[in-house]
Amino acid sequence: MTKIAVAKGDGIGPEIMDAVLSVFQAAQVPLEYEFVDMGKWVFDKGFSNGMTSEAQQTIENLGILFKGPMETPKGKGVKSINVTARKTWNTYANKRVFQTLHGVDTVFSKAGIPIDVTIVRENIEDTYGGVEHMITPDVALSRRFITRPGSMQVIKYAFEMASKKGARRITCGHKANIMKLTDGLFLECFYEVAKNYPDLKADDVIVDDLCMKLVTRPDTFDVVVLTNLQGDIVSDLCAGLVGGLGFAPSANVGDHISIFEAVHGTAPDIAGKGIANPTALLLSGFSLLQHVGLYDKANMIENALLYTLESGVHTGDFGDRNKPSLNTTEFANAIIANFGKKPEHNPKPDMTDHAVSCTVFNLSKNAMMESDSTITEKINGVDLFIESNLQPQEIADKCLRHAGVKFKLVNISNRGTQVWPTGSKFTNLVNQYNARFESIDDHALNQQDVIGLYVSLSGDFRVCSLELLNTFGDKKAYSLAQGQ
Ligand code: NAD
User: Fold this and answer.
1) How far is C-alpha 168 from the chain's CA centre?
2) d(CA 298, CA 350)
3) How far is the CA of 267 from the centre of ligand 1 (A)?
4) How far apart are CA 93 and CA 115, in angstroms?
């Protein structure tokens, strides 16, 4: 029998997990559970990453974690356990399926517009790296990591999944018109992978336009792949289209370890009352069952759930207010009572189970994901970020004195807008400038040259940070300032 790790979570977590496991037990799902210690109470015991080392070991041995929502203590300087789990175990693809559920009234269900959108969200990179610094008391910076191997991994997963499910269309949501290097790289990877799937219609939509189109014509979308933060926002938008967070499941898929959970959180406002809706966690459980090859069990329970919803049975957060709502346990029991019944809309076919046990991986070292190490790298210059409340011309006068024989001062910008050599007096300033120096005559520079400039400039300014201006192959690997 396949064994999986289960963490019940915080808030409503234990209530909805117990309900879902009772449905699994009634359906005689052949899974064994090992309960692990994760969540707020583990943080409270002094474990800084919210899980015990036994829990980590168990999850790494079993390869599958079914988890309830978890709370991360606020203001204690600890990182979100949910994000830590996804990142530590490289669950790089977050798949969230949003489908019309008959019995769950929405604007679209009333208008007869069916929704079946799968969001694939990159799950590890982006601003979720959480690498942030205050570089002056007034200025906070976040590093946004978009990497080629990280993007390729999730985009390949999205195409493969779309192709297997016979998708009509796969769309990349992005903001590459503004973030040309980060989102530009993600988009480039998307079309690179698309070449291997000529039968799949692949296109891209800028993320704000995507949001507008999703709320006006959601039925025109099928699979949508996005970077982490944009994917997070767009997937909550999609949850709203199908009835709210109570119906939003999520699978965090990796090569070795996968995590199945609901999109929603611990719902502290209703925790302990026994009234939470277990549907999202149950839908996440279906993904888990499919993941381990238990297709027939997944479809049988899903048919019972769909039948239950169609017959108007509901928890307090949705459904006909004139009909009394069921509590969490009663709702689970109603599903169990409907085992063997098929819904009128979208019944799932009978299938054969091919239970697969999860492989136990003993990795001897961390995998290095590198796509092309043969690209030539050249340093063209450096962006030096300095703290100052002087005016742009005064900064330039000082910087010019430090440029020496190897560098020329190209421009100065403030929050990405050029303020020297040209600019506007109407541009508001903060006390952090970027002085961009490039090599005179396009000569290649080395790191010692850059450090020399840093040391020299630090005689006049507090230099907060620096970024090299590189060329990779024939591509300039840095953005221009607005107005440059
Ligand atoms: P939330 O999703 O917990 O709650 C938002 C609203 O939706 C609340 O009104 C809540 O009652 C309702 N709701 C959520 N799930 C429901 C369900 N199953 N049935 C009925 N109603 C439901 O979001 P929040 O209040 O912003 O976050 C609370 C906590 O959860 C925070 O500590 C947050 O960090 C954590 N969180 C965890 C996860 C996760 O574990 N993956 C995800 C999101 C938030």
Assistant:
1) 23
2) 10
3) 4
4) 22
CA separation for the pair 462, 389 (Å, rounded): 11
Beta strands in 92-138 (DSSP E): 93-99, 116-122, 132-136
Position 118: which residue type? T
Residues 6+ apart with CB under 8 A from 198: none
- What is the CATH number for 286? 3.40.718.10
Tokens at 360, concatenated: 């136990």
DSSP 74: T
Query: For a pocket test of ligand 1, which of 232, 266, 273 has the largest count of ligand atoms closer than 8 A to its C-beta?
Result: 266
Are residues 199 and 328 located together in one domain of the fold? no
Atom of ligand 1 lying closest to residue 276 CA: 19
Report the C-alpha gap between 264 and 248 in whole angstroms: 7
Residue 222 within any structural domain of the chain: yes
Distance from residue 404's CA to the centre of ligand 1 (Å): 57
Give how far the C-alpha of residue 417 lies from the chain's centroid of Cα atoms, to the nearest Å.
29
Q: Residues lining ligand 1, CB < 6 A?
A: 12, 16, 69-72, 82, 245-246, 261, 264-270, 276-277, 280, 317
Question: Distance between CA 156 and CA 398 in Å, rounded?
Answer: 50
Q: Are strands 93-99 and 249-253 parallel, antiparallel or unpaired?
A: antiparallel
> Of 175, 125, 131, nearest to 148 (Cα)?
125
Q: Decide if pLDDT at 205 tops 80.
A: yes
**Ligand 1 geometric centre to CA of 79 (Å):** 17
Q: How many CB atoms lie within 10 A of CB 328?
A: 23
pLDDT score recorded for residue 128: 87
* The token pair that represents 362 in the structure block: 């003993």
CB 131 within 8 A of CB 142: yes
Q: Are residues 466 and 390 in the same domain?
A: yes
CATH of the domain at 412: 3.30.70.1570
In a domain, 224, yes or no: yes
- pLDDT tens-digit readout, 255-277: 999 999 999 999 999 999 999 99
pTM tops 0.70? yes
| % of the chain surpassing 90 pLDDT | 80
Instruction: Provide the token pair at 458.
Output: 């630090």
What is the domain range of residue 161? 105-242
In this structure, the answer to whether residues 221 and 293 fall within a common structural domain is: no
Q: Shortest CA distance to 120 belongs to which of 195, 42, 227, 202?
A: 227
